[in-house]
Write a structure and sequence with these properties.
The chain has one domain (58-235, 316-499): Up-down Bundle (Growth Hormone, Chain: A), CATH 1.20.1250.20. 74% of the residues lie in helices and 0% in strands. The chain has helices spanning 14-24, 38-49, 58-78, 83-89, 94-122, 124-144, 148-162, 165-176, 181-187, 191-209, 214-217, 219-233, 250-271, 281-302, 310-314, 318-337, 339-347, 351-379, 382-400, 409-436, 443-471, 475-493.
Length: 507
């Protein structure tokens, strides 16, 4: 028995080989492989068995893509601990320093749907390696940047590279893992909390003992290692047929970018000093964001080849899953990412101690994600979502309340972060598979769309929270009220889980 529950027959395994054969033959659901003509199946099997097609080292492939996702997830949080040092080092304002975080999220939002399409069209391996190369080179540029505006632009480019990891990695797993693909994909959920946990700690260490530039330079040797391993061990994709005249829908991508960017500027205007954005600045930017959003929705409904199919956004089954990803995934990730800031503002903890609070969140998310993964085939999707959502609400409630006299602030916050992390760990495998099982053939696009909604939820939470804190006389107390309000919002969103398509067993 292999590490993911696959019966091994040699290094490849009969089950994995059969499933890969059906995937390469273009079958939407592997369970219907019997519908393929006998001659076609024998030809495909012969091709796979030939010496020209070496066996796939699946455990090694998992390790390569997991390392890439780990690097990407670390970079989404590591910069937060370096903001003050970055502000001082580049002699800039906190507003522009904060844009190094929001620019990264913006790059993700803009590029994720594109990378999903590119992965489907040009091949998972090619897009994966290209993404690694872009991410590594942009990280090097960020570490060498002498100007805040150059750094922000490079952060967008860095996120563009990172955006290619998730859809291409998911597609690689779906292509080569047969019956175990649902479990292998679910295990991705444990990678992101690890990165979120490690990022602030590494960031604090680099800033304390070296320089803020170290948070970017650390990606360079890791990226080079991933590129070399991917070149050697990830199989090449089979040729793909592309319809004549197929385009990338620049209009749709532009409208979405304008909508997100205008929304980000509008939230910044809320926290800007009086007179900076003008009395109508916020409302003008908000109106632009709403107008661009409306035009985007109209465009994808009418375009012949939209870069995101409307059914994958709000179609039957997909809409509730995307809502769960944004609310119980992205918004929660944004809330827990601000725990170190909360600990510093309300309880006066230093940066390193505040950053270690995320260890509890990461450990809980990893442990519960693994447990939920192995039980997902029996439990279905809704039950873990209910349990995880309730744990998240409880954790946010703990964070919002001042600790009792018998308990110090650190263990109290540690417990709250643990509950939130446990909830994220239970929800993530279910929400990831709930979307993918609806359309396995579009795995790369759906993985990109999932990460898109996670990023949108994170952007909204971080942007609104920081804007509110910028105006507050007591930022620590205000953030406590933000956590309480978010807990209420998640309670109101619980009925959304009932609309998620239920499924038990493998897909």
């Amino acid at each position: 028995m292999g590490p993911f529950g696959w019966p091994w027959v040699g290094p490849f395994g009969r089950r994995g080989a059969g499933r890969q054969a059906t995937s390469r033959a273009g079958i939407v659901n592997c369970r219907y492989a019997c519908r393929v003509p006998t001659a076609a199946r024998s030809n495909t099997a012969h091709a796979l068995a030939s010496p020209a097609a070496p066996p796939v080292r699946r455990v090694l492939v998992v390790g390569i893509v997991a390392l890439a996702l780990m690097m990407m997830s670390i970079d989404s949080t590591i910069v937060a601990t370096a903001l003050h040092a970055l502000q001082t080092g580049l002699d800039t304002s906190i507003i522009w320093a904060g844009w190094t975080l929001t620019a990264y999220s913006f790059g993700f939002v803009l590029m994720l749907p594109i990378s999903g399409r590119l992965s489907e069209r040009f091949g998972r391996r090619r897009v994966f390696m290209g993404s690694v190369a872009v991410f590594t080179l942009a990280s090097l540029g960020c570490g060498l940047a002498k100007d805040i505006h150059v750094l922000i632009a490079l952060r967008v480019l860095q996120a563009g590279g990172g955006a290619g990891f998730t859809p291409s990695a998911t597609g690689i797993i779906v292509d080569h893992f047969g019956d175990a693909r649902d479990r292998a994909v679910s295990l991705f959920g444990s990678i992101f909390p690890i990165g979120a946990m490690i990022g602030p700690i590494f960031g604090g260490l680099f800033v304390t003992y070296w320089s803020w530039r170290g948070v970017f330079f650390v990606n360079v040797p890791i990226g080079l290692l991933i590129f070399g391993l991917a070149w050697r061990f990830i199989p090449r994709d089979p040729p793909k047929d592309h319809p004549a005249g197929q385009t990338m829908d620049g209009v749709g991508m532009g409208l979405m970018g304008v909508a997100v960017l205008a929304a980000m500027f509008s939230t910044n205007a809320l926290g800007a000093p009086a007179g900076v954005a003008g009395p109508w600045g916020f409302w003008a930017l908000l109106a632009a964001a709403l107008l661009a959003t409306g035009l985007f929705v109209r465009h994808v409904q009418r375009a012949a080849q939209p870069f995101i199919a409307p059914t994958l956004i709000w179609g039957a089954g997909f809409g509730p899953v995307n809502g769960v990803n944004a609310i119980f995934g992205g918004m929660t990730i944004g809330a827990v990412a601000l725990v170190p800031l909360y600990a510093a503002n309300r309880y006066g903890m230093n940066a390193l101690a505040a950053g270690t609070l995320l260890i509890a969140q990461g450990v809980a998310a990893i442990a519960l994600s693994l447990a939920a993964t192995w039980g997902l085939r029996r439990s279905g999707y809704r039950r873990p979502m209910w349990v995880g959502a309730c744990a998240i609400v409880a954790g946010l409630g703990v964070l919002a309340v001042h600790p009792p006299a018998a308990i110090g602030p650190y263990p109290w916050l540690l417990g709250g972060a643990f509950l939130v992390g446990a909830g994220i760990g239970v929800v993530n495998p279910a929400s990831r598979n709930a979307g993918l099982q609806l359309a396995p053939r579009s795995a790369s696009t759906l993985a990109a769309l999932r990460t898109l909604f996670l990023q949108l939820g994170t952007i909204a939470t971080v942007a609104i929270t920081t804007a509110v804190l910028a105006k507050a006389h007591d930022p620590g107390q205000m953030q406590a009220w933000v956590y309480a309000g978010q807990a209420v919002l998640l309670l109101l969103a619980l009925p959304l889980i009932r609309r998620v398509p239920e499924h038990r067993g493998a897909w």
